[in-house]
Amino acid sequence: MKIISTITEMQQEMQKLKSEGSSIGYVPTMGFLHEGHMSLMKRARHENDVVVLSIFVNPLQFGPNEDLDAYPRDFERDHRIAETEGVDYIFYPSAEEMYPNNASVKVSVVDRTNVLCGKSRPGHFDGVATVLIKLFNIVQPSRAYFGLKDAQQVAVVEGLVQDFNFPIELIPVDTVREEDGLAKSSRNVYLSEQEREQAPELIRSLLLAKAAVESGERNPAKLADMMKNHINENTTGIVDYIEIYSYPELQSLETLTGRVIIAMAVKFTKARLIDNIILNVE
């Protein structure tokens, strides 16, 4: 496995591989890897000749009230995990390498961002789109792998790939969960013991809504109320949002039809957890 920290060397390596006909599977991350990331690496390893993992804590996607310096980092641990998963290259640039100068062009995501987490994080997806445009041009992957745990990000990236005509196949990968159903996340370590016991109620509320849809419920407001009541009655968490939209367009629905996402965010003392399910509604 090779670790590369400069853009020039990474581009040269990738161009050489592509000229040899190798397919490149790419997993972009901010590090502090967990089983969710591992599932992306496994899928990429299975489907490509070469696997690239990037580790870059992107300052552009942190808001003024979000502590960039507090984001967990452990490169040695990430290196061991990547090696175990058969990663061929780690792209590990510094912020100075990625953003050496003030940008002369700004990226603005105008669709799919004013709902869910994007609503409370203005500018976040502009930062995500900016770094991904750079990373896609540096790594030049055949396929890029993203977890559906952050389904809004997947929807935004899908629009990015289409709008900018990147010759990349976007591969969404199902959420990886603990045995009790909690979506795996680096933020789970911030839960207290009591909160960790309560956290699986998020997926239970989503499954309650799914069962109601399967029984014929098509009213988004009724489903959201059902879920909110369940969270309030079974956890000390505070519901940030429960929202239901078409997917991946993320448009409001008066009645459920077609492909839809039911998504939620719940704030605990030191962690804000997100989860979702995507359904095909007849």
Please tell me what the overall shape is.
globular
**Strand segment count:** 9
Q: What string, H for helix and E for strand, traces the elements in order? A: EHEHEHEHHHEHEHHHEEE
Q: For the record, what is the CATH homologous superfamily label of the largest domain? A: HUPs
Q: State Rg.
A: 19 Å
CATH architecture title of the largest domain: 3-Layer(aba) Sandwich
Structure characteristics:
2 domains; six-stranded parallel β-sheet; alpha/beta; Pantoate--beta-alanine Ligase, Chain: A,domain 2
Word description of this protein:
The protein has two domains: 2-173, HUPs (Rossmann fold); 186-277, 2-Layer Sandwich (Pantoate--beta-alanine Ligase, Chain: A,domain 2), CATH 3.30.1300. The strands form two sheets. Strands 1-4-3-2-5-6 form a six-stranded parallel beta sheet, with helices on both faces. Strands 7-8-9 form a three-stranded antiparallel beta sheet, covered by helices on one side. It is built from ten helices and nine strands. The N and C termini lie far apart (47 Å). Helix 6 packs across helix 7 (151-163) and helix 9 packs antiparallel against helix 10 (220-234). It has helices spanning 7-19, 35-47, 75-84, 95-98, 116-119, 124-139, 151-163, 193-198, 201-214, 220-234; strands spanning 2-4, 24-29, 50-55, 89-91, 143-147, 169-173, 238-246, 258-267, 272-281. It has 282 residues and is of the alpha/beta class. A hairpin with a 4-residue loop joins strand 8 (258-267) and strand 9 (272-281). Helices cover 38% and strands 20% of the residues.
